[in-house]
Please model this.
Amino acid sequence: MNTSSRTTQLLEGSIIRSLLTLALPIVLTNLLQSGYQLTDAFWVGRLGGEAVAAVSVSFPIIFLMIALGAGFSIAGSTLVAQYTGARNDRMVNHVTAQTLIMVLLSAITLGIIGFVCAPGILRLIGVEPSVFNQALGFLRVSFVGMLFMFTFASFQSIMNAIGQTRIPTMIVFGTVLLNLLLDPLFIFGWGPIPGLGVMGAALATVGTQFLASLIGLIILLRGNYGIKLHLRDFTPDRTYIKRAFKLGFPASIEQSSRALGMSVLTFLVASFGTLSVAAYGVGGNVTMIVIIPAFGLSIAIGVLVGQNIGAGKIERAQAVAKLGQWLSFITLTVCGLLAFTFAHHIARFFVPGDADVIREGARFIQIMSFSFGLIGVQMAVNGILRAAGNMMAPMMMTIVSQWVVLFPLAYILSKHTDFGITGLWYAFPIANVIMVVIALVWFNKIPWQTKNLTKEDHEEIRATQEILIEEGVRG
Model:
């Protein structure tokens, strides 16, 4: 199906069908992508609690670096969705190329910074000596592969924005299968290939992400799925970069605030010892998997809202937003009930030989599971607001969530009550209850549906489109 007919399908007819048409491939893609972490967790868990702790303490740091560069990709996908709804193929192609430029430059810069600063970051967090070297190896390999991670993430967000959600699914399916084979090979070694332990898990992931990013770039350059890029498209456009920075900077602050909050929480968890860090890693893996449906729905809701705003169908955009929030709440509530019921079995899957980690990890899962539905609502609201070009509200809500609500609660309940580490686990659902109330109140007071980025009266944007027409970039 070409992009034009795909867009028509999404802008007309049943909203629930349109949402599911977008969401199911995205959810499947993200479930498959979680296969990277699941495979790593499964094999690394066979190395013991210290290896699990090394990976657990590394993920928030990696996520922080990714979050710092995420703004350009979010800005690009927001504009692509609205221009797709407006049927402005010329600007869709232009935005895609410029987004890739900025994402690649961000990835290279952040990868270098992360590689150099990794030892200092681990010391700052207070990682125990028995975990330090393994975490350092995992981090440095991951930072080397950040270029490929950013490239494919950008490709995926652009394809989602134009409604071509199945393409990333097929790519991820193949690379996850490859990672499944490479992980035990690089972790434990075989024949002439030495076992690299925790660092081997990172190396396997980086190799498969390189392949995924290469396939994505080839698809964009060949133009088989609605976007056709040429090398001349990659000439930096200062006008667009300025606009993308204006949209993307709040999104980067939002993502990095969330990631930095995770890092600070890791620091707090680490103060309770390796057992707590490992349990936090187990619970964090489960939480990540369970919220994948909400993340997929958030993206699908955002794409559908953005395309309808771009097409001028405001009432349909509002209907999508309302239905999307309910669908996210119900889906995540069901996932939470399943996680609660099978918490001990899930924890045992990750660390089968450590009874203490299983017990503490299961406790974290069960405490957290009651608020999964609320996480779904928050993610849906943030997706709607970002799709409408309102990046400031999600940024402010994230800052409040992490620094005004969650971290103070976690610190007080774990350090100044008899709950100890269990108090930290309780901080998560309490914070989610508070934040969903704030998010819904804020959402209902903001006229988010009025911000059509394709029709904003900016002289610079008109100038960019005139240049594209004069040069015949797209024929």
In short: The chain has 19 helices and no strands. Residues 3-471 form one domain. The chain has one domain: 3-471. Residues 89-125 form the longest helix (37 residues).
